[in-house]
Amino acid sequence: MRRIPFIFILLAVHLSGAEIDAVFTPETVFSEEMNIAVPQNIQPRGNYINYDYFKLKIPQNWYIAYYLFPPNCSFDDIFYECDEEGFHIVSTRQLWFQSRNLIKPDVSEFEIRIKVKAPAKSKTNAASISAQIDRSGIVVSGPEQVGSTEIKPGEEKEIVFPFSLTKGFPNFSVRLGVSGDLIIQHVSLHKAANQLPANKTLVEGTIVEHSQLPPATTADYADCRFVCKFRGNGILAGSSCPQEVALVVEGFRNRKYLPSAKLKTGDHIRLLIRPYHALSSSEQMIQQADDLNLFTLASYYADGGVYIRKYVSSPISTENSVRFESQQYIPLSTREINHPLEPSAIQEQQTVIRKDLEKINARLAQYPAEKRKSLQKEFAAAWKQNADSDLPGRNRRTSNGWRKLKLPVRVWRNMDGSFWELPEKYDLNSGEQRVSSENVRSLIALRDCLAANGCQLIVSLVPDMYDISARVINRDFRRVPDFRNAEIVKQLLESGIEAVYGSDAIVQNYNRYPWAFFFNGNDHPSDTTQDILTDLCAEKLKRFQIPADLDTRDISYRWSPHAYGSDPTMAFPENCDIGNNQPGSVYRCRQVFYQGTELATQERGPVLVVGNSFSETPMNYPDSFPTLLTAKTGIKIAHWRQTGGAGPLVLFIQELFNDPEKYLRGTKVVVFAIGEKHLLHNWMLNIQTLEQSALLLSGKQNLCSVSIDKKELSGTLNAEGFREYSLMIPTGVEYNQNKPLVCAVSVNPKGERLSVSSGKNAAMFPPLPGKQEAALKVNVQNKRFSLRFAGNPGQSFQLRSVKLFQ
Hints:
Layout: E1 6-13, H1 18-24, E2 28-37, E3 44-45, E4 48-49, E5 55-57, E6 62-69, E7 79-82, E8 87-94, E9 108-117, E10 127-136, E11 140-151, E12 156-165, E13 171-179, E14 183-191, E15 201-210, E16 224-238, E17 244-253, E18 256-257, E19 268-275, H2 281-284, E20 288-289, E21 299-307, H3 343-365, H4 369-388, E22 396-397, E23 410-415, E24 418-423, H5 437-451, E25 456-462, H6 465-473, H7 483-494, E26 498-500, H8 503-508, E27 517-519, E28 522-525, H9 527-541, E29 555-561, E30 588-594, E31 597-598, E32 607-611, H10 625-633, E33 638-641, H11 647-658, H12 660-664, E34 669-675, H13 676-681, H14 687-697, E35 702-705, E36 714-716, E37 722-728, E38 741-749, E39 754-758, E40 761-765, E41 772-778, E42 784-790, E43 796-805
């Protein structure tokens, strides 16, 4: 019996053509008249065979190679080359085709359609054609046959082979297997248009700026993304988005750089993007390298993309129905996300604030300044006697394990089954501090923003662990208020900010659980502190009369490993009175369960807890403060958190500014659950400052960038604490002298906060790492204007760019 040779045609699709084209093309992705008669007289030479030469013009981003071999004959490489006319010629020259695709699409349905004809006079009784799909990405799927059809002599037909492309396999190739005499007349690939989820956008544009990634091998974290400023030229498919966005791109995972880490300024790319808030909570927690501080731009995440080379024509059409979103900024106070607070709700909160302030003032009035001084002398003597009562070498610690923090000598105490520590020298009055006026103004701005959208703000502060320890360990001083925490809460209440004073309650319930803080130099709250603070917060939530989602009778608790796992610095110390506990053993914390399942938080709800790591300990999963609050109220608590200390003070404000709908829709209460130290020692972003810059730039066109002498880029403030620049609008730039100009200044501040002004208009650069931007009106006369920088004498900074808008 005559052996019939098989011929395989490989159609390999690079997603810069197939996946993206399939998204915005209405029906046909690829369609080509071929009229190639498959010859049956090729004979093998060893494992390979002699090639007949075929010429075939193919569309961009496709390549076709013909493998002709009889049954049981294998091949390993792709052989083809391209001539000057763009034809691909099968030859014996080896060329590797390296994919640059980054897109990871969701499930996409395709159809490969083939029009074939079998000659009426054939050497074989029948011919057949089959299709195989090779999917490749991180791994290669291997060939999968998606269909096979017989064609009788003289028969002409169109065959449809459906297949799907799932996430994780961004590349695919189609192999057509042919047996018998057959003429392939036409091959096409089809996909439904706009097959994108509702929140995804396929956009083409340019990387304008990008942040610097830290070295993957030496970074403090194994995974890191970086932020780019991306400007779109046109939307190809999917949802609308702003023309300029802050684009979050994958940099490295498990300390290994990803292909997207090579993106650089000026790269022209097609991107599949989605709003950053659409990522899961765990994904949003991944570290970001950001030295751009694009506060006024919406944040988007790059699911992937492809480079667009200059010779590739753009598919963007002026008739495209998808347009960029308007850049006209709408102030948060005028958006109709929720109804503004009713006057009765405002009055009720003011009453609560007034009563809380009366209690704080009454507590502090018992200890005027003179009495506090004498109190410290009494405390110092009592604490020395207490500490000296230890046997030599007992209850003292100076090291901190592998962390090697420079900590003072600390004394441990077992207080009725709860464990505390305190430095040998401690000033009972050292905690008297005030929150900076800038941070108070930022809290007021946040409060007013929330009130305009029907929400109220409550600040829950974790006190200093040693301020509590001093009073717990020395029993005669438990009646003394925590001056630091009380003064901070008093300051906030006087400013109209509802705040929770929890120190007295923690001291009174000091041994509710074995640990109130982690100690060993770690001031994160543990069981007792979180339990007391959520008790106080739950009491405040009662006035909102929010219906419960859960039956609190179905809440249970289990003891589980805490957030630090087996960290030796978070273990019971040696040579200390730790009762029956084994030195070096790690203590455990409570875990909240509902109907036998670990309780989890949600992204949206009537109560939103905004916090950092101080809201996430002691539990390991899923949360601590929010889940305890859920257990006590029956309300499913929403939780925004960022492990960095200043995250709630900066990143949350940015996210709220960029997407208020996500955080405010249906929200009645926002609880700021952070450490008092964060409010004292970190700078808080003012949401009104962001709005001011956005309103100034809203709807305006970029006129020009003003040149700056390289010698002037790095500046230092003089002895009086200021420096002035005189700048000129470039020649040839036309502007309307009757309309105000807005100047966008980009600065890399160093050290303290820095202000920039032009006449009566001013903007502030906060002490945040990396480049920052601010906008202000400028007074232009004869094409000249001046910028005045002010701060501390001798303070240095780098002026990065100055742009004018009108």
